[in-house]
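COURSE: Structural Biology Practicum
ASSIGNMENT: Worksheet 4, Part C
STUDENT ID: 0417
INSTRUCTIONS: Below are two proteins. For each, the amino acid sequence is given first, followed by its structure token string. Answer the questions at the end about the second protein only.

PROTEIN I
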Amino acid sequence: MRKKLFDIVGASLLLLLAAPFMVLIGLWVKATSRGPVIFRQVRIGYAGKPFVILKFRTLQHRSGRTADQVLPGDVRVTRPGRFLRKTHLDELPQLFNVLMGDMSLVGPRPLTESSFMRLFRESPATLQGLLMRPGLTGLAQVRGRLWRLRRGAPGILRLEAFYMSHGCLWLDLRILARTVETVVRGRGI
């Protein structure tokens, strides 16, 4: 119950602070490319329940391959998309997912169904991630992209299992502070 209250209060405060920036980002996305401002994608959430994740659109509309196949230098990424992805401001609309109860501020990252099934075949421990609400950020995200690429799914799953067994408000605050630091320094999550 404390975590849910923390998520609602935290997401509400963050939305109040971010609202002017979100309006500007939305106008920038709309002015520079055709298509919707918000990208929607089905992800696997708590207890395996699918939900629609919200992000600012960073790819050309109807550009082909799925969005979870975006690599650095991908030509489908829009001009604002490069900035939004680097700073992770594309994820601000997920604060609404937190308020709707689909996500938490901190927790395992929500996966697409295809990514979940691929990881589950490699490691059945992936199911543990369904025992709590997925998060905007988590231990694996604050480690950085390079760490995740080197450690792969087993390393990420170990961190998520650690978080699920040791998670507390203090750890959430530390992860959120580290997330802000990582984003502000532009190191990428």
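PROTEIN II
(use this one for the questions)
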Amino acid sequence: MKRGLVVAAALLTLVVGSACAPAAPTDVTIRFHYSHFEPSLIRVKAGVPVTITLRNDDPIDHEWIVGSAAIHELHRHGTEATHETRPSEVTVPALSSRVTTLTFSESGEQTYICHLPGHEEYGMTGRLRAS
């Protein structure tokens, strides 16, 4: 009898703990400030659409490109001046905002970087963790 109560209490703790665990946000704001991303780490739920507001508070243009190392390698040597057609590649003019919606289908970590000349080297990078 006592063992059954211990098991029941453990299961109840697990269920209540899971219900109270904070959910990954479905809306995120990333601020561009002094050529850095704030926050530099965001967490999202895999398989759930997330709306990302990109707010550029700097007096210069930036871009936000999220993806794998291979995607970033292409952009380091690419020639696209602006990004308007892919939700994972967004140009954000000075002192403005853009909104994009993405679904990260798999768990894992990706990097977001501004590839305008000198920005990545200055530290304009961040990480997106889907779980």
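ANSWER KEY EXCERPT:
Q1: The chain has three helices and nine strands.
Q2: Residues 3-19 have pLDDT under 50 and may be disordered.
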